[in-house]
TrEMBL record:
GO molecular function: acid-thiol ligase activity
Xref: Pfam families: AMP-binding, AMP-binding_C
Upper taxonomic lineage: Bacteria, Pseudomonadati, Pseudomonadota, Alphaproteobacteria, Rhodobacterales
Listed InterPro entries: AMP-bd_C, AMP-bd_C_sf, AMP-binding_CS, AMP-dep_synth/lig_dom, ATP-dep_AMP-bd_enzyme
Annotated protein name in UniProt: 2,3-dihydroxybenzoate-AMP ligase
Native source species: Puniceibacterium sediminis
Entry keyword set: Ligase
AMP-dependent synthetase/ligase domain sequence ranges: 32-393
Residues of the AMP-binding enzyme C-terminal domain: 445-520
Length: 538
């Protein structure tokens, strides 16, 4: 079995320890601490369930012992594909306490992705709900266990049928192992998967706890905070920026939303006194529009975080008028580096940038395509290394050769501009740039202009092969009400005094956009759809 590792060079590891970034904390010790310090406080709210920290820890410890009694051993991997319910937190904390390594899958993943995660991670067990959002996970698990020899155990929350019920795992916490090495791998996260199937990202106790501890501090979390997990809890953004793990590090309450829909979340914000929530940009824009109509009571909400993809400045400006709270932009990646606008930053920073790094030891390098550093204010490729950025993917030599430099910098694939104070403005993914007759155009820049149009609800710009230009631009526009004429949009964009080559060559109107498992716009899907439609007409 190929055990996950994430070695940091000795000189850098020593520097991170000396700086106090790495404190030798582990997740099992973190669970014990919050149970001791905040035992009577409510740890999690989900549906009609409300667990205190003491109850959550007790459940997790009994489950952990049950997992080991079942035949799993510290170091084994367990794939977790669970919705936003309290039992998900119970399972994750149980795996940590047992010395087992969670491997996270999103509820929307299906056979192709799940089989990939199980095989690549060598997972011996798989944890699922019986049903979630109308999908029965048990036939999927049945198929996978029949076809993957390494999958030995399936654990089900709910009606287990022939599998193992989570409630049946009720062992003696006295049998739990000693805490792991803080530099050992704590879990395997999944990459964004912008090309092919997602890669697996080994995160250590030391590096990840540093990230969530500092995120909780930057975001002002206290034991009185109430964090709304509206996005899937397995997503890195929802886990650690500051996410539910950062909230629980601070002893705060985590409120789980079964869906991110405005009506569901607005009610939870009102009823549970939610103080901070996190969304991806399309959902944030949906909340903004819904709030104008529904006029909800959001008086407790102090901060709306928006991340996972660039939040256009025109959309960011709408948050406070519509929702009555501060917006905080978050730009990060499951591989490590996370940037935040700080609470209280000037409006132009909050709406116009994606923040600055967590750590003074986050090394950020911005280069041209030849690898040469570019001056601040110039777009370039973002490379980074630091105390919570990985040095290698799990069991993927080809990806490691592409993604990391010889001196350990991670090639993020993002195009950014660094401004005063180290704040980064995302121009897009390297693959989201359009090379039109030699002119490099940022798709995000065009989208930002389109979103300022009063008749545009959302917009995505993609490149299309063109025999004369090399590539031309096409804007998919989701209108707000009746769609304007494309010529009117082009004329309006020209009046904004931008270069003519940035005005979309083609504009198509759509009712909505295909999204990824966490609600991001899938540009890959839109490009494929457009190219297919062109081929049909040619």
């Amino acid at each position: 079995m190929n055990h996950p590792v994430q070695p940091f060079p000795a000189d850098r590891a020593a520097r991170y320890r000396a700086a106090g970034h790495w404190r030798g904390e582990t997740f099992p010790a973190l669970l014990r601490r919050v149970a001791d310090e905040d035992g009577d406080r409510i740890a999690v709210v989900g549906g009609t369930t409300r667990w205190s920290y003491a109850e959550m820890a007790a459940r997790a410890h009994r489950t952990a012992a049950g997992l080991l009694a079942m035949g799993l051993h510290p170091g084994d991997r367990v794939l977790v594909q669970m919705p936003n319910i309290p039992e998900t937190l119970q399972v994750v904390w149980a795996l940590f306490a047992a010395g087992l390594l969670p491997v996270y899958a999103l509820p929307a993943h299906r056979r192709t992705e799940v089989a990939h995660f199980l095989t690549r991670s060598d997972a011996r067990a798989y944890v699922i709900p019986d049903r979630a959002d109308g999908f029965d996970y048990r036939p999927l698990a049945r198929d996978l266990r029949a076809n993957l020899s390494g999958l030995e155990h399936v654990i089900v929350v709910g009606e287990a049928e022939e599998f193992i019920a989570l409630d049946a795992l009720n062992g003696d916490p006295a049998t739990l192992p000693a805490d792991p090495d803080p530099q050992s791998v704590a879990f395997l996260q999944i990459s964004g998967g912008s090309t092919g199937l997602s890669k697996l990202i080994p995160r250590t106790h030391d590096d990840y706890i540093y990230s969530l501890r500092e995120s909780a501090r930057i975001c002002g979390l206290t034991p009185d905070s109430r964090y709304l997990a509206a996005l899937p809890v397995a997503h890195n953004f929802t886990m650690s920026s500051p996410g539910w793990l950062g909230a629980q590090y601070a002893g705060a309450t985590v409120v789980l939303a079964p869906r991110p829909a405005p009506d569901v979340c607005f009610r939870l914000i009102r009823d549970e006194g939610v103080t901070i929530a996190a969304l991806v940009p399309p959902l944030a824009m949906l909340w903004i529009d819904a709030a104008r109509i529904m006029k909800p009571d959001l008086s407790s909400l102090a901060v709306l975080q928006v991340g996972g993809a660039k939040f256009p400045s025109e959309a960011a400006k709408r948050v406070r008028p519509a929702l009555g709270c501060e917006v905080q932009q978050v730009f990060g990646m499951a591989e490590g580096l996370v940037n935040y606008t700080r609470l209280g930053d000037p409006d132009d920073i909050v709406t116009g940038t994606q923040g600055r790094p967590i750590s003074p030891d986050d090394e950020v390098m911005i280069t041209d395509d030849a690898g040469h550093p570019v001056p601040d204010g110039t777009p370039g490729n973002l490379l980074t290394r630091g105390p919570y950025t990985i040095n290698a993917y799990h069991n993927d030599a080809a990806a490691n050769a592409r993604s990391f430099t010889a001196d350990g910098f991670y090639r993020t694939g993002d195009i950014v501009v660094r401004g005063p104070g180290g704040y980064l403005t995302v121009q897009g993914r390297a693959t989201d740039h359009i090379n039109r007759a030699g002119e490099k155009i940022s798709a995000e820049e065009i989208e930002d202009h389109l979103l300022a149009h009063p008749a545009v609800f959302d917009a995505v710009v993609v490149s299309v092969p063109d025999p004369a230009l090399g590539e031309r631009s096409c804007a998919f526009v989701q209108p707000r009400g009746e769609a304007p004429k494309p010529t009117a949009i082009r004329r309006w964009m020209a009046e904004r005094e931008i270069a003519a080559f940035k005005i979309p060559d083609e504009i198509r109107f759509v009712d909505g956009f295909a999204t990824t498992a966490v609600g991001k716009i899938s540009r890959k899907e839109l490009r494929a759809r457009l190219r297919a439609s062109i081929e049909e007409l040619s």
